[in-house]
Amino acid sequence: MSQENKEIETAKEKIKKAFSLSEDSASNDEIRSRLLDGGKVTGTNMCVLVCAMVIASVGLNMSSTAVIIGAMLISPLMGSILASAYASVAADYPLLRNHLIGFALQIAISVTAASIYFFISPVKEPTVELLARTSPTFYDVLVAFFGGLAGIIGQTRQDKTSTVIPGVAIATALMPPLCTCGYSIANGRWDMLLGAGYLFLINCYFIFLSAGIILSVLKIPKIRELTEKEWKMRRFRMIQNTIIIALPSIVAVYTMLP
């Protein structure tokens, strides 16, 4: 091998090492423990969730960005999504079902809390912050996907003091769309409900998708190995769901162009 080829190979190895996810990743047991503990639906988590929803609702009602950010930082919603992604990649379907049920319960309680607040609130007109959560585009898909990538990478590192998760919580914004759904229900604004619900779906799905991709790259242990037929079906469903969920947001981008 010539000197030039050796230098090229060395450069490739350095680049590969620089972007390697396995260099400083935590052990499989630690990753499992972190993600599943973060996705537990406990009484404490539910109380924190309700508090976060009320805080976010007040922030949206008053158009206070600082208050909305504070609510996003304390919300435990993302933990359930990451735990569900782990269970899916590990092919642990009973565990996946439990986390999805817990996540559905969190959504129901969140929307109920927001609906009660907005029903009681004397401010009935939608604010700029509320309206901003009703027109999702493909840019929101990008934020959710890359935010999810950053989030799961941060959660799987050896360093437990990562500041990635708070940033991801703010960027992907799971709370505000749910609060907007509560506002829509409380005030009969069904047009807003559709847009806010779609934004929440985008954020949840693409965080789940990106987390699943990283966990697959890290080769976390599976409960059982899938057959070739099961893998093909799984890949087909992933591609199909991604296209179906992303397509309306792509159309929205082009309808916004002059």
From TrEMBL:
Positions of transmembrane segments: 41-60, 66-88, 100-120, 136-153, 165-186, 198-218, 238-257
Domain of life: Archaea
Pfam family, one: DUF389
Keywords: Membrane, Transmembrane, Transmembrane helix
PANTHER family from the UniProt entry: AT15442P-RELATED
Listed name of the protein: Uncharacterized hydrophobic domain-containing protein
